[in-house]
Design brief:
The chain has 333 residues and is an alpha+beta fold. Helix content is 56%, strand content 16%.
Length: 333
């Protein structure tokens, strides 16, 4: 130990004349762990950590080793993440301020939500009325075409085009209902998040999970919609959908095409009319099979049918039936 101290003093003494001229002496360690004392760092070692000594050999400044490219990359990424986090915090705070200014209570949130849902429901009812008219018109056109064929007259190209146009309009109307249900889901999800956050900010009891309830409502609303797998032509489920229609509709089939089957309008109080169609869901980019149920309305004010529970049961079983693989289900009545 004494020998090392003497050696260090000797080295510093040797460099004192130089240091008095240059005013700098650096201490640094190479890759082999050897300590060096120099007035300048070799260019190849300029990246190393070093200490600057004064004339008495006391450290007056320290310089960290230069960062590697990977360290610089990680440092930049950390800075980016910190800025992004700060941006999200500021955005959330701004949203919280808007939320608290917009609503004074949970009831305010729910009433605003219900108002928007009611607006969409009104649009759906208008579309449903249009569907009913389209069905009747299409049925009349099909019957007229059939009568012409039976009488030996040729069905004109224009009549066939008109029938196809009505079919396309009917499919578009079904597609519109699916789109509106997606709109209702977005409304429910948005207000569910607002309600949950409002309760957190006001420190109110979270008696239920509004987000989970919104998801459940969407699933219930689309019980009559079956989504095919991406790229699937849906042949198996489509066959099962037609079998399901025949098993549950109380009115006879009036129109049967490649992608649509329609039964007659309900006449008796207990009648159930079912239509199924295979259409494109523009929101998901896949084929869907849509089932439309109609009954004879016995209460115009409440829009109730005579067989509400049976219709509910038919809707609940639709997707499960179409999801079955292999042969058509033997459980169909």
């Amino acid at each position: 130990m004494r020998l090392r101290i003497v050696t260090l003093i000797a080295v510093i003494t040797i460099f004192l004349p130089l240091s008095s001229q240059a005013g700098k002496l650096y201490k640094w360690v190479d890759d082999k762990g050897q300590t060096h004392y120099t007035q300048t760092l070799p260019p190849s070692d300029a990246h190393r950590a070093r200490s600057q000594l004064d004339e008495q050999g006391i450290i007056v400044n320290e310089v960290d080793a230069a960062k590697t490219e990977e360290e610089l990359r990680q440092e930049a990424e950390q800075e980016r993440l910190r800025k992004e986090q700060q941006r999200l915090v500021e955005k959330q705070l701004a949203q919280d301020r808007v939320l608290l200014r917009s609503f004074r209570s949970e009831d305010d949130i729910q009433m605003t939500r219900d108002g928007q849902l009611q607006s969409v429901d009104t649009s759906i009812r208008v579309t449903q009325a249009n569907i009913k008219r389209l069905k009747l018109t299409l049925e009349e056109m099909q019957q007229d075409a059939a009568k012409r064929e039976l009488s030996g007259r040729k069905v004109s190209k224009k009549m066939l085009q008109d029938i196809e146009t009505k079919r396309q309009a009917l499919e578009d109307a079904y597609r519109s209902i699916i789109d509106r249900e997606h709109d209702k889901n977005r409304i429910r999800q948005s207000f569910a998040r607002d309600l949950k956050r409002f309760r957190e900010l006001k420190k109110l009891e979270q008696s239920n999970d509004p987000i989970q309830e919104a998801r459940a409502s969407f699933s219930t609303a689309l019980q009559n919609v079956y989504h095919c797998q991406s790229g699937d032509t849906c042949e198996g489920p489509w066959k099962r959908a037609k079998a399901y229609l025949k098993a549950h509709s109380t009115t006879p089939i009036k129109i049967e095409g490649e992608n649509i089957v329609i039964t007659g309008e309900p006449v008796e109080d207990d009648d159930i009319s079912i239509s199924v169609s295979r259409i494109n869901d523009r929101k998901k980019g896949t084929l869907v099979i849509f089932m439309d149920l109609q009954c004879k309305i016995i209460s115009l004010q409440k829009r109730l049918c005579n067989n509400v529970e049976l219709i509910k049961s038919i809707k609940q079983g639709f997707r499960n039936e179409l999801a079955k693989e292999g042969k058509l289900s033997q459980s169909l009545p």
